[in-house]
Amino acid sequence: MHTHLPGPERLLGLCRMTFIADERFQSFYVESSGVWTLQIKYVQARDAGIYECQVSTEPKISARVHLHVVVPRTELIGDSDRYVKAGSAVILRCVVRGALEPPSYIIWYHGTQQIFTESRRGWKTQLDRGAPDLDGDIHSTIGSLIIESTRKKDSGNYSCSPSNSPPITVSLHVINGRLTTERPACKTRQSGVRCTCVCACVCVCSLAKR
């Protein structure tokens, strides 16, 4: 049995012997059924390719199988930086796409600490399997962290960590007092220039009319 992968052809096994150094690969034979099997444990993206089983008969016979490896991905729904006023509600969402099976769980972390909603009043998590996301994909899974009333100390990085795909992080900024889309014009030493700060992070400057 050998394989055609990106790169040179490699011999994986002969009879009951496996030649590849990767211990995830194993070739074995079931006498009762007369079936040869190539087993790959903990499949990785680099394992994708064409695998061929050859039988040493005359004429030689063979069968090919093209292995496609699906790699799930985790994405945020919304911006990676969220700004909210203290006391307001916020929902952080992530979506798992490209998985053959939905994740069995999604764990949320605040920094490095796992979030246990049972001990936090007004906090809860939600897992929607097979529900259409914003792109209409019905095979995705959406995980939500809901905070009914945010406080300043709730600021920080929140990580969505599904069981079957990589984690992803969103930054939450809880601002005390009034949260507006514009701030008063900033002062500048250059005469005739007026600056407006938007979302407390971006400043746009323009020449003022005289």
What does it look like?
It is a single chain. The chain is about 0% helix and about 50% strand. It has a five-stranded mixed β-sheet, with no helix packed on it. The chain has a four-stranded antiparallel β-sheet with strand order 2-1-7-8, with no helix packed on it. Strands 9-11-15-14 form a four-stranded antiparallel β-sheet, with no helix packed on it. Among the domains are: about 25-65, Immunoglobulins (Immunoglobulin-like), CATH 2.60.40.10; about 75-175, Immunoglobulin-like (Sandwich). The protein has strands at about 1-5, 10, 15, 15-20, 25-30, 35-40, 50-55, 60-65, 75, 80-85, 90-95, 105-110, 115, 125-130, 140-145, 155-160, 170-175, 195-200, 200-205. The relative contact order is 0.14. With about 210 residues, it is mainly β. The model is unreliable at about 1-5, about 180-190 and about 195-210 (pLDDT under 50). The chain is elongated.
